[in-house]
Design goal:
The protein has a 6-stranded mixed sheet, with helices on one face. Helix 1 (56-68) packs across helix 2 (87-96). With 142 residues, the protein is of the alpha/beta class. The chain has helices at residues 56-68, 87-96, and strands spanning 4-14, 24-30, 53-55, 73-77, 106-111, 123-126. It has 2 helices and 6 strands, in the order βββαβαββ. The chain has a single domain, classed as Alpha-Beta Barrel (TIM Barrel), CATH 3.20.20.70. Helices cover 16% and strands 25% of the residues. The protein is globular, with a radius of gyration of 14 Å.
């Protein structure tokens, strides 16, 4: 597990697709992808060496600010975010965003399913790839 993650970008916006479309969300785009789909709209995120490694504490500070501004959940996306062990990151998000009067922020994941799952999520968007075997996703609860 790591205290640093290669961060391409983070931004507060509306979820643009799927069941949660139109809801306020904070996006965390991590660098690194070994899937390499020709139709990918974020090819710039594939090479994690191009991006700074940011402490999970600093990323969580941005999540807290976005939540105060109305973000309903955070979305961890990429690249392929599961190229990184996200156990500590997810645990820290849950712990650091819980308050006396509020539950922790919900965590969503967008993944191809190529890598073994790490972390704990409230929602997973799975986009399986024909040329790669999708790993068996084992779901864990808090």
């Amino acid at each position: 597990m790591t205290d640093l993650l290669p961060l391409v970008e983070h931004f507060h916006s509306l979820q643009g697709e799927g069941y949660h479309a139109g809801k306020s969300a904070f996006f965390i785009r991590l660098a690194g992808c070994n899937v390499g789909c020709s139709w990918c709209d974020t090819k710039h995120s594939w090479d994690e060496k191009k991006y700074p490694s940011i402490s999970i504490e600093k990323i969580i500070e941005h999540i807290k600010i976005a939540r105060k501004k109305g973000a309903s959940f955070c979305v961890i996306t990429g690249g392929e975010p599961l190229q990184h062990n996200l156990d500590k990151f997810c645990k820290s998000i849950k712990k650091e965003t819980m308050g006396e009067k509020q539950k922790s922020i919900k965590i969503h994941l967008e993944t191809s399913g190529v890598n073994t799952i790490s972390g704990i999520y409230d929602w997973i968007t799975l986009s399986p790839k024909k040329t790669f075997a999708t790993k068996k996703l084992l779901f864990r609860t808090l």
